[in-house]
Amino acid sequence: MAAVILVLLLYLSRSQDARVFRVDLRWIGLCVGLTICQLLAEALVWYRLLAMQGIRYPYPKTLLAYLASQYLGLVTPNHVGELLAAGHISVDTGITFGYGLSSVVMKKALAAVTAAAFGIWSVPLLAELRFLQGMQVVVWSVVVLIVFSAALASWVVSLQRLARKWEKVSPWKIEMAEFWAGVSQLVSPRLLAPLGLSVLAFSLLFFQLDAVLHAMGVGLSFALISKLMALSRITARFFPLSVFGFGSKDVLLILLLRHHGIAFSDGLTAALLLLMCSHLVTLLLSGLSWWIKPLVIRRVVPANS
Q1: CA dihedral 226, 85, 285, 275 (to 10 degrees)
Q2: pLDDT of 158-178, one tens digit each?
Q3: Residue 225: inside a domain, yes or no?
Q4: 103 Cβ neighbours under 8 A, 6+ residues apart
Q5: Neighbour tally for 238: CB within 10 Å
Q6: CB contact at 8 A, 42 and 104
Q7: Could you say which DSSP state residue 171 is in?
Q8: In terms of residue numbers, what domain contains 70?
Q9: What does the radius of gyration of the chain's CA atoms come to, in whole angstroms?
Q10: What is the C-alpha separation between 250 and 272, in angstroms, rounded?
Q11: In this structure, what are the phi and psi dihedrals at residue 76, rounded to the nearest 5 degrees?
């Protein structure tokens, strides 16, 4: 993936208007730092959920298990590898896999709710597009309906796929009674704290894009940058198409930047730099974590009678 990004950046450098080799590396370093902070915040969300269930699991171990599962999520279809986070908890604490899975699913649910909320907040950007001008009410109504319908449908479908896929790769069985028991422990007013942390982790994406644009010398208001990022991320949840991490979210981001006066070459450069600072850094850190703490699955061989 790094080679692909490098080739594209070198190609863009041939454009007279491109800013590839005029970036301020200090801002790029800040973007990398923000990516690390985002990973720390996401692991903290999971740590708080485990604490709500009365599971004593140190934060350093939580972070390591989270990053290790992220690595498999990045390199497996549909991020099914992220489910191994529940396997780490089950092995290290002795709880059932179904109970451990409840916190993993709840964390993903909080992330989905956060992305949907920010996505709805950014909907007015769609109404500003030329072919949608004068249709603000229609756009708002349709998008809100689609967001909540898709969120509900994806929740049900993901749980069904979860059980089928996990049975193929793990000796553990998903005890649904234990799973729902774990969920019931999390549904309380105390869930607002992990939700707040999830909002914080997502909002760091806005600062990452802002840092990349500052590095390129592109000036846009922070409010606009936040809406651009939020809209592109919620789009990725409905159209999860990507190649080497570059996908629908990046295409929409480039188009939205172009609509607001940013040249296509600069928009593509910004998307690639953001991908390098987020996706690639996450892949490296999570790969290192998997190397440190791999999940060894021991299948039980039935004895001959």
Answers
A1: -30
A2: 555 555 555 554 545 567 788
A3: yes
A4: 46, 49, 50, 53, 55, 86, 89, 182, 186
A5: 13
A6: no
A7: S
A8: 23-292
A9: 21
A10: 8
A11: -120, 150
- Name the domain count of the chain: 1
Q: Are strands 246-247 and 242-243 parallel, antiparallel or unpaired?
A: antiparallel
The residue length of the chain stands at 305
Distance CA 99, CA 116 (A): 26
Look at residue 231 and tell me if it is in a domain.
yes
For residues 210 and 277, the answer to whether their CB atoms sit within 8 Å is no
In angstroms, rounded to a whole number, what is the distance separating the alpha carbons of residues 127 and 138?
9
Q: Does the pTM exceed 0.70?
A: yes
Percent of the chain with pLDDT over 90: 26
DSSP string, 201-248: HHHHHHHHHHHHHHHHT----HHHHHHHHHHHHHHHHHS--EETTEEH
Structure tokens at 301: 């061989």
Whether 300 is in a domain gets the answer no
Q: Is residue 12 part of a domain?
A: no
Structure tokens at 253: 């981001």
